[in-house]
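Hi R.,

Here are the chain sequences for the assembly we discussed:
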Amino acid sequence: MNTKPARTRLAPSPTGRFHLANARNALYSYLVARQTGGQFILRIEDTDQSRFVPGAEEVIVRSLEWLGIAPDESPYRGGSHGPYRQTERRDIYQQYARELVEKGHAYPCFCTPERLQQMRKEQETRKVERVRYDGLCRQLEPGEAARRVTAGEKYTIRFKMPQDGSTTAHDHIRGDITVENQYLDDYVIVKSDGLPTYHLAAMVDDHEMKITHVLRSAEWLPTFPLHVQIIRAFGWDEPVWVHPSILLKPSGKGKMSKRDSAAAMQDGHSIFVDDLKGLGYTPEGVLNWIALMGWGVAEDDVMTLGQMTERFSIDNLTPSPAAINFQKLDHFNGTHIRLLTTEDLAGRIKPYLTGAGLEVQNETLLKVTPLIRERLVTLDDSLTFASFFFKESVEPEPQDLVAKGLDARQSAAIARNSLEILSPLPDVSHSVAEPPMREYVERSGFNAGQVFGILRAAVTGQKVSPPLFESMEIIGREKVLQRLKHAINILEGM
RNA sequence: GCCCCCAUCGUCUAGUGGACUAGGACGCAGCCCUUUCAAGGCUACGACCGGGGUUCGAAUCCCCGUGGGGGCACCA
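And here is the predicted structure of the full complex:
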């Protein structure tokens, strides 16, 4: 367990949607911050203006809030280490880039995109070991370079990678990762528009914002040595680096593609957090699900956020890629729904019901909720299990009113007998209505499944429903009798 | 092609040299409960990638294969 307050961050770019991997990094970062009494920070990495998607930032914030892991510092909440949007930190990067150039760790590069493209093409046709920058501008005299810069020539700034030896970087999950420097490139750290690339911006910001633990996707592993080199060039302390594993598509064959996402959506699932709510998932279920992709828990894996905060440790993260398993999401969602109090659950279900045009009375909803709770996988399942409680009348399929092994005439007779039994009763509560109906089953020679099946279809309008007598009690005598009469009419017309 | 990472049931994982007959969860199958569907309970099926070492002893450490994944931009 960490003892010093940790500062962690989530640094997404507002270029697309907020997906599972983002959410999982956010969760782990949040957990580390919480358990050490530190801060979790949201920083927007918007240096690539060509890929900027309007509204993406809002989706990120909304998703984090919905999950219940909102940041302590962010562009919206502010904080003492802002600004939290990289485009607003332009001058800071400029200053640090200049420092790198002055120290001889970086140099201006005047190569045009066209030249670079051609260079790569040539390298490929020559089948060179590795396609990379050829170092043309690295050779330039610093004075000459400075003259061209002041002359107004367009340029980028490249990091001067050591050409001999190797770089060892330490990942908390994987241990030391060593790469021969000759395989590393002179990466561009400031673009010709004056904005930094990730490599510079993230290192500068993590330092400036006093980040102690960097949790980021394993996709960064290949440039990890570069990042460490940049930090060493500045002479800064390194944070604890944690690279949680890549998330794979359900088949385990590669990352999720656009096509895979569409397929998941078809199936009532999604890898995008802002879809999950509409699909009926709870933050608790989603959180528990993503927490366990790459976090090894031996037993008792159903956890709330609070329990995760107590139990989480970056020591228990796994290095191997994990396939996304939506069945497990359903499982966790269902179990967390069952853990909710009746009031809480009712409140969460209501929007799905009213959203479907149903008129929902809170009093009734509170009675219905315990009946459907253990049947729900997603919150919108409440529609299939509870709609009939809130409808004036119900329209059963004629064939559903015919009991198994019987014909329409026999079924109609059972329905009529049931009506005769229920009509004189003061009410159709469970304790009042069930005994005489049980007695009828005994006496009639039909089995319970047949009799109650007809009654269920008549009263609920469907073959599958919550327990029959409990349901009738909530629906009430008048409506029950009404629906039963309606069913008799249908059966007699068959 | 080059570089990097990874390797236990179908999937997510526990396991840090002897307590492993390899544990849990999801899923799957069966049974119990039951007026339907669930939930719940019980049971079953199911894995240490291969080969070499190291060691009295290896799922665990090392090497080599093989397989899988990721990355090779003035994107993050």
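The longest helix of chain A spans residues 20-36. Chain A has a mean pLDDT of 95.

Let me know if anything looks off.

Best,
T.
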